[in-house]
Design brief:
With 315 residues, this protein is of the alpha/beta class. Helix 3 links the parallel strand 3 and strand 4. The protein is elongated, with a radius of gyration of 20 Å. A 6-stranded parallel beta sheet has the order 2-1-3-4-5-11, with helices on both faces. A 5-stranded parallel beta sheet has the order 7-6-8-9-10, with helices on both faces. Helix 1 runs parallel beside helix 9, helix 2 packs parallel to helix 3 and helix 4 packs across helix 5.
Length: 315
Amino acid sequence: MTKQTLTLPYAGALPVADGPIGDPAKTYTFCFSQGLANNPWSTAQKESLMIEAAKHPNVQIKYTETNDPSEQVADLQSCVSQKVSGILVFPQSVGPLTPAIDAVCKAGIFVIGMERTVDTDCPDSWVYLDYKQGAIQIANTIGESLKGKGTVVETQGTMGSSPQILRHEGFIATLKSKYPDITVNETSPGDFDRTKAYQAALSFLQSPQGKKIDAWYTQYSEMALGVYAAMQQTGRTDIPLYAWGDDKSTTSAIQRGEVSAAVPATPLHADLALRVAIQAIEKKDYPKRIMLEQPLLLTKDNAPAYDKTTWGSAG
C-alpha cells in the first residue's frame, strides 16, 4: 500500500504453509475490526495482515476501521451476523468494546485480539505488546537523565484505551517508587494524533505550568512530532522529548535530535494474529496468549540500524 519495503518482525513465529488453508474448496472469511483510523499505525497493521492473507488464495479479509467505539461495536455485530470464520480485533477502548467482544465469543466465532486489551478473558487468543516493560524502560531513562529531580510533562493518548492506561500507570508507578522527587504534569490528551498533540502542547507551553519543563513524555511518536512542532513554534526545543514508537518517522526524529529516546512498539503483528486464526481453523494447537518480546529502547546509537527494516515513512 505504501510501496515501501518492510520486514515483518514475527514472520517466523507459528508458521503456516503458503497455499489454501483448511478445505481448499472452501473460502474462509475473516473480519479485521480496527479501532484506529487515519493513522500510520493502523495502515502498517493492516499491511502486515494483508501480506499474510495474500499467501492463501481461499482467505478473504473484510476490513473496517474507525475512531468511534460505537461504530466499532456495530462493525463487530455486522461480522457476527455474516457468520465469518473468525474475527481479528484491535479495540478502540476498554469500556464499550468489552461487552461487544464478549458477544462475539458467545456467538461461537473465533476471535483474536491485538495489542489493545479489554476487560474480558473470553477471546480465544490475544497478541500483546509488553507495555509494562516499556513503561519501566522509559521511566527509568527519564529518571536517570534528570538525576531523580525535576518536572516532566506527559501527553496521553486516547483516554480509556488500554495503551493509554498501561503506558501511563506503568510510567507513573515507576517514577513514584524510584524517583519520588520528580513531578509529573499533564497536558490535555493527544488522542494518539499529531495535530491534537500539537494543539495540547502549544496550549500547555503558553500556560503558567509550561514555564518549567525538564522533560516531556508522550505515549506515541505521532504525538511527539506534534509536541515538537509546538516546541519549535515557542522556541522551546531544548526540552528532551521521549515517546513510544519505532517507525521511520520516529527513528528519523531520534537521529535529528528531536526525540531523545523511544520505546519500540510495532504494529507489524497482524500477520501473526491471522496465522493463529488459521491454525484454529485447521484444528491445530495455538497459543492462548502471545507476549511479544520488547526490544531495547531506541536512541541515537541504535536508531540508524533499526531504521533499515522498520515500517512507515520518514515524513
